[in-house]
């Protein structure tokens, strides 16, 4: 038997909290750690146009700023003019493939926000085409307009990375607060 034929022996670890007493090798633990890390960073991709040495999330709008982007065209070809909407606004930058975005949209639809008559919600699909957004709107039963932002034109005005991004505006289109929705209960922070 040569060195290559010798089986590798690794210690077997037992998870005492698991009633099945499944064996977990160090390799399995490492794989679980790597998968958890990938899951946690899934929606926080930094665009390739940013310097590699700047992994920080940057937000380009702050509380008290005037929200500059005032007009959009929805995926239903409706003009949206924030100047004519005399309500508070919630602008949600999201991606259909992002689990954090999916969770946030589900939470919004399950909350009183979805039926608040004094609030206009607008979803902006970062790097999303109209077809994907229409399917997403139907799948998640969204009752507010969605806007396609295939080239990140709108998104790049508010941030460099991280979705979902939630921007709270008052009736005069002043930024009240910005929230990065990667935390599990981000909608709990949506207070004007």
Q: Please count the beta strands (DSSP E, at least 2 residues each).
A: 9
Question: What shape does the CA trace take?
Answer: globular
* Annotation field: number of helices: 3
Structural class: alpha/beta
Please give the alpha-carbon distance between the first and last residues: 72 Å
> Which series of helices and strands comes N to C?
EEHEEEHEHEEE
Q: How large is the radius of gyration?
A: 22 Å
What's the story with the biggest beta sheet?
A: 5 strands, mixed
Low-confidence stretches: 8-18, 38-42, 44-54
Strand content: 15-25%
Largest sheet strand order: 7-6-5-8-9
Mean pLDDT score: 80
- The helix fraction, in percent, is 10-25%
Describe, in short, the structure shown.
The protein has three helices and nine strands, in the order E-E-H-E-E-E-H-E-H-E-E-E. It has 192 residues and is an alpha/beta fold. The strands form three sheets. Strands 7-6-5-8-9 form a five-stranded mixed sheet. The protein has a two-stranded antiparallel sheet with strand order 1-2. Strands 3-4 form a two-stranded antiparallel sheet.
């Amino acid at each position: 038997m040569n060195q290559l034929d010798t089986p590798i022996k690794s210690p077997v670890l037992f998870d005492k909290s698991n009633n099945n007493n499944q064996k977990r090798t160090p390799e399995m633990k490492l794989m679980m750690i790597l998968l958890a890390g990938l899951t946690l960073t899934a929606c926080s991709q930094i665009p390739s146009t940013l310097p590699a040495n700047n992994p920080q999330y940057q937000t380009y709008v702050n509380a008290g700023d005037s929200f500059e982007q005032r007009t959009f065209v929805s995926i239903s070809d409706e003009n949206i003019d924030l100047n004519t909407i005399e309500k508070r606004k919630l602008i949600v930058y999201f991606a259909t493939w992002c689990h954090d975005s999916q969770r946030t949209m589900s939470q919004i639809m399950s909350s009183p926000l979805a039926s608040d008559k004094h609030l206009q919600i607008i979803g902006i699909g970062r790097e999303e085409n109209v077809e994907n957004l229409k399917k997403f709107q139907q799948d998640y039963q969204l009752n507010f307009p969605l806007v396609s932002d295939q080239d990140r034109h709108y998104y790049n005005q508010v941030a460099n990375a991280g979705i979902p991004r939630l921007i709270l505006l008052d009736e005069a289109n002043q930024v009240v607060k910005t929230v990065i929705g990667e935390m599990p209960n981000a909608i709990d922070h949506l207070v004007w």
